[in-house]
Design a protein that fits this description.
The structure is a homodimer of 210-residue chains. With 210 residues, the first copy, chain A, is mostly helical. The first copy, chain A, contains 9 helices and 3 strands. The first copy, chain A, binds a DNA duplex (30 and 30 nucleotides) through helix 3.
Chain lengths: 210, 210
DNA sequence: TTCGCCGGATTGTTCAACGATCCAGCGATC
DNA sequence: GATCGCTGGATCGTTGAACAATCCGGCGAA
């Protein structure tokens, strides 16, 4: 029976287009255009913009317009700093068996995607994996923070910048991390995860502007 | 020369009133009333509401209105889970001498407030202390997350719930943490900070609903 | 007492308008 | 030929009014 508000649906549609890469970083979004395209009022678009700007997906420049967020110098390090903080902290809490099961499920999802040569599926499986790790901490706030970070990464590090062998390493590593977690070796799981995040940051830095 | 937008100023005014306790948790904010009080349009108020709702300071209930956020069951644990993740992680990065100096400055600020019996000052000094710790990591995103968490805590754990001896313990502890940080004993500093956060959570849980 | 309906109040959304601000282009000046 | 300043058009920021949808409290009927 619940019907999300129009503004919410507009935000959702924009989020989708951002994740799919239909809107590339730096692109300008004109209020009137979006309003007309989606058959909605300019004020409503405005509200959606405010929401997405709060999530750092859009950048609002007063009197100039809103633009799809672009990667500034230091942003990569910034994002990974947040991930190190919340992912490592979360995995070290251990988590309930159900939550650990969700992590395992994400690992298996990745294996299936790899077997099917589904590059797209590999990406989302990896995101599910890291989302499941944060979920171990049972904190709504951490979960939403992580969801925003993952949305940012989908935007910045889009399919174009992702090649297949990029994921292949992760699979083995995710498996190791998950095994350590299941075995209760929280210290080791945290160390493995931290090492992965550090290496991933290096790779991304090397690919992008550096 | 930069003039923040009207919506931004409205949001700022509401943030102030929330921090000062003029607006208590659970209170209803009627769009028309706020608009008239601040001499601003209803649409503008709406935009400010959206922003504050994104910061979890206000809760939006569709077709019912916006209310000052209230502490739900599990929220205390949730907030402290976030703090443990980002504060401990930040302090373990060490940080530049300038940033460490900022932490030291916050400690001294607390001492002065204690000497002057300035209860109000003690509270903000403590917030500066923890903000400075997060700033060690040099991450804009972590800083804004922490700022939001601190705003939430100002709202929930307001002066009324704070008594003087609540702070007195912290002073010595902050001093110890800061000393360990200055000495480069990052592990110990992190452990001390973690212990403090755990104890603080227990205290708050005991005071509130439990 | 409980149920259901009604009216007032508030929200969700749209629309039209106007001043403020920015930007590109163009001409004038050095 | 390059720089400066102006002008016009486009877009944003904000307002005010309007109307449907929804919620809430109260009142009457079963």
């Amino acid at each position: 029976m619940k019907v999300p508000s129009v503004a919410e649906r507009v935000a959702e549609e924009l989020r989708y287009q951002l994740a799919e890469g239909f809107l590339v970083p730096g692109a300008k979004l004109t209020e009137a255009t979006i309003a007309e395209d989606l058959g909605v009022s300019r004020n409503t678009v405005r509200e959606a913009f405010a929401e997405l700007a709060g999530e750092r997906l859009l950048l609002r420049q007063p009197n100039k317009g809103v633009f799809v967020a672009t990667l500034e110098a230091g942003d990569i390090h910034d994002v990974y700093t947040v991930r190190r903080a919340i992912e490592v902290s979360s995995i070290r809490t251990g988590g309930s068996p159900e939550r650990i099961g969700a992590v395992r499920a994400a690992v298996e999802e990745g294996k299936r995607a790899a077997a099917a040569n589904d590059n797209e599926g590999l990406g989302s499986a990896n995101q599910h994996f890291h989302g499941a790790i944060v979920a171990l901490a049972e904190s709504n706030r951490l979960n939403t923070i992580m969801a925003q970070i993952l949305a940012e990464m989908r935007l910045y590090f889009h399919k174009a910048t992702m090649n297949a062998h990029f994921y292949s390493d992760w699979l083995k590593e995710n498996e190791q991390i998950c095994s350590a977690l299941e075995a209760g070796e929280l210290e080791r799981a945290g160390d493995l995860l931290l090492a992965y995040l550090n290496r991933s940051e290096q790779q991304q830095s090397a690919i992008h502007g550096e």
